[in-house]
Amino acid sequence: MDMLENTPVIIASSLTGLVISRSLSNQGIHHILIGGDEPDDTPRLGESMNEGASIDCWRFLGPEFKSCFYTKSHISLLNGKHASMLYTGNPNRSIDKANCNGNKASPFMVVNSLIHVDRIKLDKLLYHQTRASHFCTFIRNSRAKIAYDAGLDKVTKVELGNDECINNPSFVFDATGPFGLVARAADIGKMELTDRERVVWTHYGREPISTLPKVWWLYGTNLLRLEQAVDGIDGIAWLIPLGNTISVGVSVEAATYRPDKFSAADVMQLLDAAFARRGVNYRSLFPETKVVKELEHAYFIRHRAYGSNWLLAGGSYLQIWFPSSSGFSMSTLAAHLAPHFINGTEGVGRFYEQTMHRSLRFHDHIHDMIKDPPFTNPYQAQRFWSHWYAMLIVRFSQHLRAANNDLASSDLIYKKMEDGGALVEKSEMLQAALIRKNYVRTKEVSDLAELGQAFPGYFTSLFFLQNSYAGLLASLRLRLR
Ligand SMILES: Cc1cc2nc3c(=O)[nH]c(=O)nc-3n(C[C@H](O)[C@H](O)[C@H](O)COP(=O)(O)OP(=O)(O)OC[C@H]3O[C@@H](n4cnc5c(N)ncnc54)[C@H](O)[C@@H]3O)c2cc1C
Known about the structure:
Blueprint: E1 8-11, H1 15-26, E2 31-35, H2 51-61, E3 69-71, E4 74-79, E5 82-87, E6 115-117, H3 119-132, E7 136-140, E8 145-149, E9 154-161, E10 164-167, E11 171-174, H4 181-185, E12 190-192, E13 197-205, E14 221-226, H5 228-231, E15 235-242, E16 245-253, H6 264-277, E17 288-289, E18 293-297, E19 300-302, E20 310-312, E21 318-319, H7 327-343, H8 348-357, H9 359-371, H10 378-403, H11 412-426, H12 428-439, E22 440-444, H13 461-467, H14 469-480
Parallel strand pairs: 1-2, 1-11, 2-7, 4-14, 11-20
Antiparallel strand pairs: 3-6, 4-5, 5-22, 8-9, 9-10, 12-19, 13-16, 13-17, 13-18, 14-15, 15-16, 19-21
Helix pairs in contact: 1-3, 1-7, 2-7, 2-10, 7-8, 9-10, 10-11, 10-12, 11-12, 13-14
The structure holds flavin-adenine dinucleotide (FAD).
Residues 11-12, 14-16, 34-36, 45-48, 53, 142-144, 175-177, 179, 181, 199, 251, 314-315, 322, 325-328, 331 line the site of flavin-adenine dinucleotide.
């Protein structure tokens, strides 16, 4: 182990650890990755990608991962008797349409590139590719410990058991998620952002013998606000299509819906019935069942993200409400910045902490929708999405800075997004003028069962031209010709 002294160390081989390792290998930086076995085949969390993560999947991971991706054309919400969505891309496009070439990631790449990810496939492929790099020394150990010097604010040793250890790691990336190995050793407190939630989820599948019907909810990420009085359970659910599989799950208050009263199977039954009640009858299309999984957790932020030679990477520092689809982008943010941390780039820790911290507003916005009573008028749905959209702009710009190695650049594209985004974020009037009218679609129904048939024009060119930024660009091009 002596020869591994003064080397950067990544602790944990789940997604965050793997993308950091890949980033260091891409830069030719020798490092140690401490982690467990190949990921298993059970349904995982983290299948819907936001703007930054989608671009990263194409550019940072590369074309060999393409078979793990599916197009994502909207994010929708069924809440009360209202179906609403941010329509983001043409649902008729092929996955090959994503244009993520070019030296630098740009906001225009989002058009056509939003995706869902098959995490079972991706995590496995990434695990093997990452380990195969000649710059990565893999050590199998899922119970690493560390020694921390509070005076120096430094991790001084990584202990592997059996008297084996890595002394004086030059830098330590803690990718252990909520466990927070370094955070615990350094006694960094955390603020819980929610009460404890219980998450129950599974995959349903089908034989690919017939084509699926063209229904809008099979083309994007769908959220459903469940109501105790209607569904027998309160919570927020997702439905994410992944080719011949769908991912379905729900988050409920752990104290109210305890496993001794509601088994995971009971929760899934209530969830399937809740979607079916709203005309989204996926079980008739996806009859095959997979194992039902569950976990209990609370969303949180730790009081500090980095120290003298360590970083709380991605979900080790911050975890926010899942509808934000932000876990993957937080992992890749840490990965883009990892070489800077090792090289001691001035201000990188502050940049990381501030960019991550920005997500808290997004978390609060989603939290209010989940915990407030269901919508009673279309204005609430419009407001929800236009505010959502407004809050994406600055965060996305900061993600692009990291992806492009432009942390302190005064490039106009970043300035415009950041100044403009900050302005729109603050002004309801601007949101109403710029976003609500153009990108948010809402539909109110008199009977819940009609929600599944909302958005009748969803697959038509007119809907595309009127509602998406891709459509807007396409119509501008037409006008210019
Ligand atoms: C309900 C829900 C839905 C979500 N949906 C989305 C989504 O749609 N899109 C999205 O982008 N994100 C989503 N996320 C977040 C996403 O799942 C995670 O951000 C993502 O999986 C990255 O996890 P991670 O690698 O940081 O940590 P984790 O997956 O938590 O892994 C931590 C790893 O650390 C290892 N470990 C712990 N201690 C040690 C030790 N001492 N030594 C070595 N190894 C150790 C563990 O074995 C584990 O492998 C969702 C999260 C939840 C809860």
